[in-house]
Amino acid sequence: MMRITLLIAANAALVSLTPAQRVAEEITAIKAGTVWIGNGKTLKNAVILIKDGRIEKVGQGLEIPWNAKVLDAGKRWVMPAWVNAHTSGGMDQANENIQVTPYLTVLDSVDPSQAFFEASRRYGVGTLHVVPGNACAVGGRGMVVRPAGKTPEQMALVLRAGMKMSLQPKRGSSRSRHIAEIMKAFEDAKAHRAEWERKKKEFDEDKKNGATTKKEFEDKIDKLKQPLLDLLDRKTTAYLYIPRASDVPAALELVKTYRLSAVFVLGGDCYKAIDLLTAAHRQAIPLILGETLEITDKDPVTEEEKIVCPARILYDAGIPFALTATGSGGRGSRGRGASGGTHPAMAMPWWQVATCVRHGVPERAALEAFTTIPARILGLTKRVGQISEGLDANLQVLSAAPMEPECQVENLVVDGILIYDRKRDPRVSELTGQTTTGASKEQK
Amino acid sequence: MNRLLLNPLLALFLPIASTAAQGAFKPDKLPETWPEAGKTKKAAKKPGATKDTAALRKLLGDASVTLVRAGKLFLPGKLGKTPRIVDGKKSWLAYRAGGVVGLFAAPDQPLEIAANEVKAKMLDFSDKPDSFAGPGLCDADSRWFVASDAGDLSVGAKGQLEIWQEGWKDLVLKSGITTVFVPAGGAVGTSGPGVLVKLDPEKGATQLGRPGASYYQLERLATRSTNLTRGAVVKSLRKALEGAKNYKKADEKWKKDFEAYQKKRKDFLAHYKKNPLKAGEEVKAAPARPTRRGRGRGRIPRTKEELEKMLERVPPAMRDRIRKQMEARMKAAADKAKADAAKAPKKTGDKAKPDDKKKAPPRPKYPKKPKHDRTKEALLRILDGKTVLRIEAHRAAEIKAVTKLALEFKLPRIVLVGATEAFKAADELRKAGALVVITPQTLPRQGMDTLEEHFAANAAKLAAAGVPVAFGSRGKEQGAMLSLYAARSVAHGMPEAQALQALTQNAIDAAGTSKVDTGMVVFSANPLSPTAHVLCLIRGSQVVRLQGDK
Amino acid sequence: MVSRRIAFGLVVGGALALLAQSATAQNAAPNGLLIRAGKAWVAPGQALVRASLLVKNGKIVDAVARPTNDAKETFLDQADSVRDFGKNAVLTAGFVDVHTHAGSDGELAEPVESFTPELRASRAYDAWASAWKRITARGVTSAVLAPDDRNLAGGIAAFVDPGLAAGSDADNYFKMSLTGAALNRERRPTSLMGAADYLRERATELQNLAPAKMTPAQRALAAVIGGGQSVGIACSTVREIHAALDATTTYQLRTFLIHADEAEECLARIVGAKVPVVLRPLGLQSSRKQLRLPGVLQKAGVAFAFAGENDQDSGLPGLQTSLAIAVRQGITAADALASVTTRPAQIAGQSERVGTLFTGRDADILVWSGEPWDLRSRLLAVIRNGTILHENKQ
Amino acid sequence: MRIALALLLLSSALAAQGDTLVLRGARVFTGQGDFQKGLVVIVKDGKIAAIGRDIPVPQGAKEVDCKDKWITPGFVDAMTALGLTSMNENEESNEVTPQVRAINAIDPEAQNFKRAVAGGVTTAYIMPGQMNVFGGLGVVYKTAGKSRVVREDAGVRMTLGQMPGSGNRSFRGFGGSPTSIYYRRPNNRMGTIWEVRRAFYDAMDVRETNLGPQLEPTAAQRVLISALDRKMKVRTTARHGQDIRTALRLAEEFGIAVILDDATEAYKTLDYVVAAGVPVVAGPPSVQAGFDGSTPHLDTLALLARAGVEVAISTAQRPDALPLVREAGFAVRGGMDRAAALAAVTSVPAKILGVDARVGSLDKGKDADIVLWSRHPLSPYSRAVRVWVDGVPVTKPSR
Question: What domain range includes position D37?
Answer without folding.
Answer: 2-73+363-393
